[in-house]
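task queued by scheduler; priority normal; single chain, no ligands, no partner chains; default sampling; output format set to structure tokens
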Amino acid sequence: MINETLMNGLCAVLLAILLAFTTTPAVRALAYVIGAIDVPKDNRRMHKRPIPRIGGLSIFAAFVISTLIFCKPGENLLAIYTGGLLIVLVGVIDDIKPINAWLKFIAQILSALIAVFWGVKLEFINLFGEYIHFGFWAIPLTVLWIVGLTNAINLIDGLDGLACGVSAIGSISLFLITLIKGDAHSAIITAVLAASCIGFLPFNSNPAKIFMGDTGALFLGYTLAVLSVEGVFKMHTVLSFLVPIAVFALPLFDTVNAFTRRILKHKSPFSPDKNHLHHKLIEQGFSHKQSVYIIYAICAILGLSAVTFTSENPSKALVILAVGFAVLGVYLLLISKYGFNSKEGFGIESDMLEQINAKARNDGAKDDTES
């Protein structure tokens, strides 16, 4: 007999995929009606034509409806429903007519405090077997984590399907971790979040028919942050403090790098630029899709290492990270020495091909002479 929890989880995942997929065309039409259109007014944007951008409403609706039907409303879900609703409303307004970055930042802090109100707190971590309790600092650290990850997912949303795919990979990583931990309730919630992203992704992949906008990016970042506090940070494994950091390492690194870069240039940390990781990959010669797939792969490797960090023997995670970064290092060396072209590959390939063609022409000329 099929376990009831497993059946509920499968039904919840299927419903989330179907809801996200079937509501997206209607949300796309709504975007045109209310004027939530991303018009490429500067060279920072990668698209060349106006694209509707409140697709996050489909992700939000799919997640909320599916969890309301199949999940018990615990502290984490109540925090996501209430704080997430505030985040989504701010995102919709910003997608229609951009608002001041500091107002969005204040809204993110308020949403984080709503999560704290419902009991979502980063109260302790396990550091090499020693429990460190934060006491008074639990609330500010929780707010910092939620706001930081919310911004990290939003800032990485620069290519078609990038933030949505990265969020799906992060959700799947959290799903596997909570499943190993034996927390079936949190596992279903994270699976539903991943399913909501997957249902939306066909419309968001390059060339995108709709963006999820701040509506979706802020909601996904906020939700992932809340779920990681409740389901991952409080694990009782030796390296549990590394698990959420590994899962979201790439967007967090990109955000810290962006904020530091802008502050050093005496600019607002929220001022947009074209120096994110995905921009750098395209500058190196990778195509739009190749850049997205590379970042997907890096996030998947980091997520896989995070899953293995949950065991009492984290050596496998270190091996995975070592192999992953070794491959990345080889690619960087090849790019720095030979360059890369999205159609021809590394420069060494085109150079060798030219030598092969030249040799073939010479051999052909010799054959003609001898004959």
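post-processing summary
- The beta strands are 37-38, 51-52, 124-127, 130-133, 340-341, 345-346.
- The mean pLDDT is 83.
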